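Q: Here's a chain of 275 amino acids. Please give me its 3D structure as C-alpha cells.
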Amino acid sequence: MATYAIGDIQGGFEALERLLEQIRFDSAADHLWFVGDLVNRGPQSRATLRFIKDLGERAATVLGNHDLHLLAVAAGCGRLRRNDTLADVLEAEDRDELIEWLRQRPLMHVGNGWAMVHAGLLPQWSIEAALGLAGEVEAALRAPHWREFLATMYGNQPARWSDGLAGADRLRVIVNAMTRLRVCTPDGTMEFEHKTGRDTIPAGYVPWFDVPQRKSAGTPIVCGHWSALGLVMRPDLAALDTGCLWGGRLSALRLEDRTLFQCRCAGMAGTTHWQ
C-alpha cells in the first residue's frame, strides 16, 4: 500500500492515465493525493473529475483556483474566460453530480505526516491554524447559500492576513493564500501578478515557503500551482506542478519514501509559455 501525491492535472486525463500505469497504481490498496487544479485548460476535465470522484475514499483532493473557477461559473457567479476548457463539464449529463462532489472537497488536507494545499500558506499560520481557516471556507462552500460565497470570492484585497478580518474579506484572504499564493513579503503581504520564476520575483517579496520563521515549517507541505517554479524537493516542501499543461511533466511523489515518478506531457494549451 502506498500514497502518491500528484501535481496539477488541469484536464490532462491521458497524462494521468499514463502516470498511474507507470506507478502501477492499485485502486484496491493505494491512495492518491491531488494538489488541486483538476480541471481547465486541458481537454479532458470531465473525464478527470469522473475518475477521481469514482475513487471514493482512495483519493484525497484539495481545491485549486481553477476548480473554484469552475464552481463559480457553474453557480452563475463567474464568467468563462477565453482559454477556459470547461464546456465538457458544464454540458455533461452528470454536471450537477460532478459540481456537487467538487464543492465538497476541502481546501487543505493533512495526513501521513504531510500537509497538502494547492498554492501555499501565509507565514502567520501554523498547520493547525490553517486547517481551521480552511474549514471556514469549506463550511461556506457546503452551505445552502454557497453561491453567495462564490459571488464575493474574487479580488486581491485584503492582501494581508489579520485575525480581526471577518465576513467576505476573511474568506477571500484564506482562498487567495491557499489557491493563488506564490510570493509574499516577510509580513505576509501577498502579490498576485508574479507568475514566472525565482529570478523575476519583485523586490521585497520571496516565495511563500522561504519566509523566515513561517509557523508551518515543522510539517512538510505538498503543493502545486506554480508551474514556472518547476519541481522543488526539500525536507519541508514538495512543489509538484511541473507544467504538464505546457508540455512539461506530470509528477507523482510516493510520500512514504519520497520517490518521484514523472511522465512527459504533450502541451495542451497551444503554447509553451508558463502561466
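Q: Can you summarize the key feature?
A: The chain has eight helices and 13 strands.
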